[in-house]
Fold this protein.
Amino acid sequence: MSTAFEALLEEVKGAVDSVTVEEAHGRLNNGSKVVLIDVREREDFAEGYIPGAQNIPRGFLELQIEGVVNDRSASLLVYGHEGQTPLAARDLSGMGYESVAYIDGGLDAWVGAGYPSDRDRALSKAEQFRYARHLLVPEVGERGQGKLLDAKVLLIGAGGLGSPSAFYLAAAGIGTVGILDADVVDVTNLQRQILHGTSDVGRPKAVSAYEKLKDLNPACNVIPHQAYMTSDNVMEIIEPYDIIVNGCDNFPTRYLINDACVFTRKPIVDGSIFRFDGQVTIFTCDSEGPCYRCLYPEPPPAEMAPSCAEAGVLGVLPGTIGLIQATEVVKLILGQGDPLIGKLLMYDALQMSFKKFNIRRDVNCPVCGDNPEITELIDYIAFCSGVNLSEVPEELTAG
Ligand SMILES: [Zn+2]
């Protein structure tokens, strides 16, 4: 370092806040909201970083910081190589961020103090090529792509909703895509269920889906489940997966999946369609958000909820809804943006309008409420038949 630079550094150090690694560890683990920024180069970051850190190389800091945190009152911790971090902290303060401090000693001091570091999954050359357009997006990058490759997503149904979801999720590099469907391809499916072709008519949908997805992305671990979901197999089927994408077309399965996901705390990205209308939401199935039963404690009578086979559906509609589901899955995995948690998105294709409604967890919900009555799987066929409600929830069907 030149004498002039050393002098500048000393001056800047005197003007910005710093914390020890012990103080940083305390702030990062006491539940307060802290944005942790690693300003080293990407190659250094890939070798290891403080858990929770986001990487913005020093040269891009001013350009990219607002994409990571725009709230000027947010609490920011910065670390990097000695000599660059006090200057980075000064520049962030100069941009109006009110609470900025740098971590003295950076990653070396952190590791030296015995705290754990994280390391991203290294992408192979083939993965770097295949996902090149993802790597350019700051919110994805190698780190996000690694998360996608490590993710395990189960699609319930290889039909109208499952088809577009599965195609795009496999293309995006979701490492494991399970697809559950017990049916065989019927010619009337082909108007919308784009995983299957004319030559697949009469073949199991799970097999047809497997072949299409493997052709699209051979590295994707596609797991076909040619089965009906029942109380006997649901736990075993969903166990390996992180996220469940629901595109099923009947109420017993919806309630079954919901209850199983509440018991195992797995999020459901739920979609349904009816003629020109569709809806999407995320049931987190935990104390944070609602579950399906919070919205629909009881199933509607069968005549109030016709299936696609009974009511018809516009062929392009499940494409829109299935891709919104896939988008929400990718966002959940990346931890980016505002997912549809506690929000029901309703789509009207005729008006080309989207409306969002707030929904919330019902503390009296029979399965996810504070004092749940249902604590194990029940007979869902019996539960969904012969129910007579005076007030029918506006439920849509899928398929
Ligand atoms: Zn609930």
